[in-house]
Amino acid sequence: MGSVKAGTRPPWVGLGAAVWVQIAAGNAYNFPLYSHSLKSVLGFSQSQLTMIAVASDIGENMGILPGLVCNRFPPWLMLLIGGLSCFLGYGVMWLSVSRTVQPLPYWLLWFALCIATNSSAWFSTAVLVTNMRNFPLSRGTVAGILKGYGGLSAAVFTEVYSTVLHHSSADLLLFLTLGVPILCLLMMYFIKPCVPYTEESSSAHRNFVFTQAASVVLGFYLLITTALGDVFSVGDGNVTSIVYLGVMVFLLMAPLAIPLKMTFYPVSVTAQQQKSITPSDSSEQLRQEIPIEDDNTEPLLTPSVSTTSLGSFREPYDMSDVNMLLAVGEGAAVKKKRRPRRGEDFTFTEALCKADFWLLFFVYFVGVGSGVTVLNNLAQIGIAQGVDDTTILLSIFSFCNFVGRLGGGVVSEYFVRSKRDKSNAIATHTFFGS
């Protein structure tokens, strides 16, 4: 794995770059934009179109392999694998839809689309795992922001499809073949592990609020401009369409304003604050790569940032931990091995034994599955209702998807912080009260 960056600015740079990767990770949401061409150009029947949509769903959600290797591979390599998948898969689809080659077998197109959309799993895993480790105290907020931008990706691609690509399915597939991998290659340098940002301050809260507000503004902007473009027939390469696209790019770059502010208006960090920045216990590699100073050892009974913030607030305070600390303080040699608690890292086999894992799996299967079913048939739903242009329908779907994802991150972080504060208060009273 590459070197670990230190300081307060690199995590925010990585978060700003991750926004662009998450937009690229939403490439599977573009299926309604070119599904009609699979019927008209390649002559697919409705049943064939449904089955190839299943290939898109399987590829997008087959994240077992990226999840298993995310602790072994650096983020840049995962992004490279995702970019190659995108290039190969969508490249085959473009060759067929553009009639550059003779019509390819159906089974080959099925596997090509599966490989293409599997890039989403590699992109999302790389940026989510890296940024949640870089911000261990705000994992819910970070996940909500990044997944929210992922939900907005369909609206972003729709804007490009309408203003630059002139509603051409072949050009869209070419853009996915070349544009998405190039974007991820450009972002590779910035998506990397950093010394975890463990400062809980008003400035950090303002930064997250700013990023969330920027994503909300972008969501409304995309929804409004798509509707206006549909009403006033904008998107023929005129000045208005270029302005639409330029403003969208500017709003996508908004999260980078945070590290820019830190560059031009640096805030002095005291030595004590620098010592308090420790690697998150959720990243084994960060532990191995960041040296720990031996001459400034923290007191034995002072809880570490990662233990206090990521473990204790999710489980009731364990008195055996207190007894172990007291025994160590008296000079006893104590070696304790316990299973990970909720909120800590689990191995794959450990997760399979937890009810929480299967509950999340069931909720994801039911909740996301219903949305994916609507998305796959969105073009056919629009045509059945007399709407030939599905861009406005996809933008509405994307905006609602974004609201649910961003809101889920905000709500979950609120409850996590509330329980953490309550658990810490109970732990302090239990330990020192008597």
Description:
It contains 19 helices and no strands. It is mainly alpha-helical and 434 residues long. It starts with 8 loop residues before the first helix and ends with a helix. Residues 270-319 have low confidence and may be disordered.
Order of helices and strands: HHHHHHHHHHHHHHHHHHH
Tell me the Rg in angstroms.
24 Å
Total number of helices: 19
- CATH topology name: Growth Hormone, Chain: A
Query: Percent helix among the residues?
Result: over 70%
- The average pLDDT score comes to 76
Gross morphology is globular
The stretches of 5 or more residues where confidence is low (pLDDT under 50) are: 270-319
Strand content: under 5%
Structural class: mainly alpha
CATH superfamily annotation: MFS general substrate transporter like domains
What's the end-to-end separation, in Å? 47 Å
Counting DSSP E segments of at least 2 residues, the number of strands comes to: 0
Query: What CATH architecture do you see?
Result: Up-down Bundle
Q: Provide the domain count.
A: 1
What is the quaternary state of this protein?
A: single chain
Main sheet, how many strands, which sense, barrel? none
Q: What is the top-level CATH class?
A: Mainly Alpha
